[in-house]
Design a protein that fits this description.
It contains no helices and 6 strands. The chain is an all-beta fold.
């Protein structure tokens, strides 16, 4: 799960999960309901390895991170 805080209600959130080559494997988007939201990524659909994620909020706030699947 990827936790995002400091949101306003109705902020538009987009999550992208990419492999090491930059290929987008997961692309989810939705509007925020609360000031803290969770994106749940199913690791069952990903092979073992290292992935990177990017969360964009209303096209302005960007959070990035690394996701390791064992």
């Amino acid at each position: 799960q990827i936790k995002i805080g400091g949101l306003s209600e109705n902020d538009f959130m987009q999550l992208q999960v990419m492999d090491v080559t930059g290929k987008i494997l997961i692309n989810q988007s939705r509007k925020a309901i609360n000031t803290n939201e969770l994106f749940t990524v199913s690791k069952n659909n990903l092979s073992a390895g290292i992935y990177f994620y990017k969360v964009v909020i209303d096209g302005r706030k960007i959070f990035t991170g690394k996701l390791v699947v064992e």
